[in-house]
Amino acid sequence: MIAIYPGSFDPITLGHLDVIERGCRLFEQVIVVVFQNPNKKPLFPVQQRIEQIRRSTQHLPNLEVDSFDGLTVTYARMRQANVLLRGLRVVSDFEMELQMAHTNKTLAEDIETIFLATSTEHSFLSSSVVKEIARFGGPVDHLVPQAVAIDIYQCYAKTPIASAPTAAELPSPMEVPRTDHPKETPPV
Ligand code: ADP
Predict the structure, then answer these.
(1) Which residue among the candidates 49, 89, 122, 131 is catalytic per the annotation?
(2) Ligand 1 centroid – CA 93 distance (Å)
(3) Is the peptide bond before 165 cis (omega within 30 degrees of 0)?
(4) Which atom of ligand 1 is nearest to the CA of 187?
(5) What pLDDT is recorded for position 157?
(6) Looking at the chain, which terminus has fewer C-beta neighbours within 10 angstroms, N or C?
(7) Distance between CA atoms of residues 176 and 129, nearest Å
(8) Which of 16, 49, 86, 183 is catalytic?
(9) Nearest Cα to 117, choosing from 85, 83, 73, 80?
(10) CA distances from 119 to 14, 21, 72, 165, 184 (A)
């Protein structure tokens, strides 16, 4: 069975990577598809996001990375995939994800959306949180793959703090300024 994991991945986080790795254990093939979300102003262009994901997933032989401009179900049909893989973190994700799953079901009856619950340690983690921390000069090494952290630091032209904080030092989600979480509508 082939599963599509669609998203913005701007940038890929360890939470995304966890979903990808678990998806690769569940399905014959997983295709991560980077979509341009018209509701979000991206930090990285699509091509760079693809490269970041490829570099972070070299250990996964049944993973492919691609991009697409159009409906997710159109891409899924093109690739003969019958599963859309999505992640769930908090209750606020659920409403949007359920709406999207129902919408996609009306467009493609034979394609199922399957949700993976976030791993506990990634439940607070989103691309937006990473960008907020980096924007204010904080460390993100513990939140994204190493190569991605370097891209982020270069992007914000900030010097990373030498070592990532311990779990006890991490800000609680309440303390982290959030711009687009609960998230804006992702494209279907
Ligand atoms: P989109 O713009 O489509 O929401 P994202 O890149 O933000 O794209 O997220 C893609 C998918 O990954 C979504 O289903 C989202 O809920 C899921 N996801 C994001 N972060 C995590 C995480 N920390 N744990 C589990 N799933 C996550």
Answers:
(1) 89
(2) 9
(3) no
(4) 3
(5) 77
(6) N
(7) 7
(8) 16
(9) 85
(10) 10, 12, 25, 19, 22
Residues with CB under 6 A from ligand 1: 7-9, 13, 15-16, 19, 37, 86-87, 89, 93, 118, 122, 125-127, 183, 186
pLDDT tens digits, residue range 127-179? 999 999 999 999 999 999 999 999 999 988 745 554 444 444 444 444 444 33
Binning pLDDT at 50, 70 and 90, where does residue 36 land? confident
Burial classification of residue 76, based on how many CB atoms lie within 10 Å of its CB (0-12 exposed, 13-18 middle, 19 or more buried): buried
- Per the document, the length of the chain is 188
Contact 12, 55 (CB under 8 A): no
Can you give the three-state secondary structure of 64-75, one letter per residue?
EEEEECCCHHHH
| pLDDT given for residue 184 in this prediction | 54
What distance in angstroms lies between residue 7's CA and the mean position of ligand 1's atoms? 7
* Atom 10 (ligand 1) nearest CA: 7
